[in-house]
Design brief:
Chain lengths: 293, 242
Amino acid sequence: MSIESFLQTLVYGVFVGGIYGIAAMGLALVFGVLKMLNIAHGELVMLGGYASFWAFSTLGMDPFASLVIVIPALFIVGLALDRTVYRHIVRLLGEEKIKNSLLVSFGLTLVLQNLAQWLFTADERAIQVAYAGEGLNLMGVTMPYTRLGSLLIALLVTLGLNYFLHHTYPGKAILATAEDFEAAELAGINIHRVYMMTFALGAALASIAGTFVTVTYGLSPSIGIIWTLKALIVIVLAGTGSILGAFPAGILLGIVEAVSGAFIGATYREVIGLVIFLLVLILRPQGLFVGKN
Amino acid sequence: MGKFLGINHLNASYGDLQALWGVSLKINEGEIVALIGPNGAGKTTLLRTIAGLHKPTSGTVQLGDTALHALPAYRIVEQGVILVPEGRKLFGSLSVLDNLELGAYTQRARGVRFKTLQHVFELFPLLAERQKQRANTMSGGQQQMLAIGRALMGLPRLLMLDEPSLGLAPMLVQNIFEIIKLMNERGVTIFLVEQNARQALELAHRAYILEQGKVVGTGTGRELLHNNEVRQAYLGFAPTTG
């Protein structure tokens, strides 16, 4: 393999990994704060994808520009899901909570998939922007604008989320609730409000991933589960307590998949990802991007 | 000194297990009131119930005209009733400064937080030096100071402390008790739960004894220090014979 095609593989791994990272950050946020596993996270990615497809096909909006509609739209969907479904689960304790969250969100997966099939049909959709085939060429490595745009926005969103969580009061309230919900209550934080906003934020992050998926790959009502799985692998790599660590972990998974796909064969790409998932669980269960203790 | 906090016939349970049996007590404004009693008597449950972390099955908790038992925990904090919980419950991965700032989360406290922060740093100069340090990398005594500092950031009118001396070296215990006294002199009413009955009774204006979820005795700190039963049960005196 030439250096150029290796670099090309690497760069594509980074591009894909950026999408993994954004999808996983949303799941990690919800998992870290609400302490429940939202299997339907991939369905929120899917709905976000349809929202941007709709903005593109009916309003003629550029998919990246459409994020100004897509993000608030899925944020509202997140609020609604929290109010109707998840707020009942978040009150449960310990094992009850995690079990119920799995069951309910799995049920919601089916509901949302069928809803999408009914609303948008099972046809595969994709967004073809005018600049789809164009891109930068650096030392023989091609970087399509759609991919570059996705990565750049993913990076900005990660930095923005980092700033929000560590430097604003509502953000710190989220971290405090993740750390110890009773201590958060004793500090005067309305934790049920934090749960609601966090879930909505998770849905908004999913919608960004969904938009990138629609631009990069394509969209159908059944894509959700793949993204839930990828996001799960990524948050185990990052460490389940790490929200922002999901982004570098996503990039890492993207690179590993791309490189192993190139060397071993595309068929085994997914397998390598899962093998790494298992290795990390066995050798470093706290995750790769979590410090001591 | 008017009635400030009034607890009337409070019952609380964990599932089928009743932890508080018709507890009634009152705390006047400006007082230091101690609550002593053996392990498992329900002391922590009482504080958690006042703080809104645990819902009573019946009975009332009144702060002036406000029914605290009907409010969620965060609204109780807004009323200035603040608990330093057992085991401190710091935000371990956050910095000392973040912990303190989160203590001033309520609107009431947030506006004046920079001023309050200076007061807390005066009381605990060590916290000022270690602002950037992660809370869970500090020693037990330092963590207790941070826990109290965080509670003070919320501008407490009633500060409740659950076993603040637990696991601390005697000198630190002395230090913590001095700070409690100082806070009280500055106008904060104190409700103190302690295993360390002697020091608690020496410090407190009044005290209650809780056994098996019931109030079984009350008096001024001095009275209880000289009460024979209290001396035997909580102060380590052998029963006097004859």
